Amino acid sequence: MKAIGLHRYLPIDNPESLIDIEIARPEAAGHDLLVKVEAISVNPVDAKVRAPKDQTEATPRVLGWDAAGTVAAVGPDVTLFKVGDPVFYAGSITRPGANSEYHLVDERIVGRKPASLDFSHAAALPLTAITAWEALFSRLGVSPEGRDGGRTVLIVGGAGGVGSIGIQLAKQLGKLKVIATASRPESAKWATELGADHIVDHFKDIPAQLKALGHEQVDYVLIFNDTDRHFPAAAAVIKPQGGICTIVENSAPIAVELLKAKSAAFHWEFMFTRSMFGTPDMIEQHKLLTEVGRLIDAGTLRTTLGENLGPINAANLRRAHAMLEQGRAIGKLVLSGF
Predict the structure, then answer these.
(1) What are phi and psi of 275, to 5 degrees?
(2) Would you say the pTM of this structure is higher than 0.70?
(3) Which of 317, 281, 330 is nearest to 47 (CA)?
(4) What is the CATH number of the domain that holds 289?
(5) Are residues 206 and 142 in the same domain?
(6) Which residue intervals define the domain Enoyl reductase (ER) in the entry (predicted)?
(7) 25 vs 194: CA distance, rounded Å
(8) Are residues 30 and 145 in the same domain?
(9) Are residues 323 and 258 in the same domain?
(10) DSSP alpha helices (H): ranges in 71-125?
């Protein structure tokens, strides 16, 4: 079957950084679904895993952790899906990725594709929806039924993939007042259309901008871009007993002591935790994606597809990685069809 993989970890402008390959079609076992992949989405994690390092792979490594497609076969322990079902999912970082014609994924982290979306628009959602949902509702404890309505959340990186769905979840389900960061007119427009009440520029003084808006402090902060840069500002603006959650690993020590006087909480969110450790509650991600699909079909949430870059091949995938590394993408980048 066709796939895109790598042998060496190279700069994305090197044509060998991602290459078109042929690999054997896998077989479903246990709780696995074998999915015929129709569309994929690209995330910062893809570029980070592919980033240059002194390492080689004896057999091609296939990346990709966002996909939508059709169930082609099921393992003997599968109970949630059947052959022919349209699905969407993010997969596991500990297994081969979805940049291939057929892909194995555990049914417990898979959702049924929203009926109102085609495969391309559905592929834009899983990883970011799981991340934003877990960060907001599981880590920070915001009520998805709106019981915390009226409280304020600062979303750093509002026009990115996670920010794009995070704004919607915070606004539509959490009923929060949403302040999102964006640095360009087009990204500010995108975040506003998704429901942000206010926009601030993350390259400028965030505390000063919030003060000018009349929100000197906020109840929650979601850091979806550059923890090292933005944690000091988050610590400065978080309310006493508020909460900060980040999804971006730090490169320097985080000064969590800044939160002590406020008794403020600090959380990490990593959507691969359940699949990586095989936690007993893995099926919660199936339930989560099922609910996201329902909310999409009900018109409560919308897809976050920003641009479809064309067919699934190495050239287009290298282009997507380059766009992510440049930090210029708005919403999600999707490829569809082999």
Answers:
(1) -75, -35
(2) yes
(3) 317
(4) 3.90.180.10
(5) yes
(6) 13-335
(7) 39
(8) no
(9) no
(10) 119-123
φ/ψ of 119, rounded to 5, equals: -65, -35
What's the pLDDT score for residue 230? 97
Q: What is the pLDDT of residues 29-40, one digit of tens each?
A: 999 999 999 999
What H or E segment, with its residue span, contains residue 321? helix 314-326
* CB distance 122 to 114 below 8 Å: yes
- What CATH number should be reported for the domain holding residue 188? 3.40.50.720
Residues 6+ apart with CB under 8 A from 320: 42, 309, 333, 335
The conformation of residue 188, written as its DSSP 8-state character, comes to H
Shared domain for 287 and 165, answered yes or no, is: no
d(CA 103, CA 69): 9
Q: How many domains does the chain have?
A: 2
Residues 28 and 109 reside in one and the same domain = yes
pLDDT at 77 over 90: yes
Q: 199-204, long-range: CB within 8 Å, 24+ apart, which pairs?
A: 199/158, 200/154, 202/156, 202/157, 202/229, 202/230
pLDDT tens string 233-265: 999 999 999 999 999 999 999 999 999 999 999
Phi and psi for 318 in degrees, rounded to 5? -65, -40
Give dist(CA 332, CA 194) in Å, integer.
14
Place of tokens 């969590």: 256
CA-only gyration radius of the chain, Å: 20
Whether 140 and 69 map to the same domain: the answer is: no
* Residue 98 sits in the same domain as residue 136: no
Contacts of 206 (CB under 8 A, 6+ apart): 154, 156, 181, 200, 230, 233, 237
- Residues constituting the chain: 338
Residue 100 DSSP label: B
